[in-house]
């Protein structure tokens, strides 16, 4: 069983070489930094959905219906 022609033993050897080169503390710090970056990205994308797409005008809005005004009948 392999991953695209790479056996599990080859992956283990590559992982060991990476750990030996960078050390576990540096890899742990890199992983936590990457996780924080992903969380920040998801949070910023979630805030985009919460915002209304059209900004509402600030101030007072008048909602009125125009009506025809009838003048009172004149008495002679």
UniProtKB/TrEMBL annotation:
Tell me, how does this one assemble? The Tat system comprises two distinct complexes: a TatABC complex, containing multiple copies of TatA, TatB and TatC subunits, and a separate TatA complex, containing only TatA subunits. Substrates initially bind to the TatABC complex, which probably triggers association of the separate TatA complex to form the active translocon.
> Which organism does this sequence originate in?
Pseudomonas guineae
Membrane topology per the entry is: Single-pass membrane protein
Q: Where are its TM segments located?
A: 6-24
Q: Which InterPro entries match?
A: TatA/B/E, TatA/E
Renumbered to this chain, the Basic and acidic residues biased-composition regions fall at 45-58, 65-76
Annotated family:
Belongs to the TatA/E family.
What are the record keywords, sorted?
Cell membrane, Membrane, Protein transport, Translocation, Transmembrane, Transmembrane helix, Transport
This entry carries the following GO cellular component terms, namely: TAT protein transport complex
Q: Which protein are we looking at?
A: Sec-independent protein translocase protein TatA
Q: Name one GO molecular function term.
A: protein transmembrane transporter activity
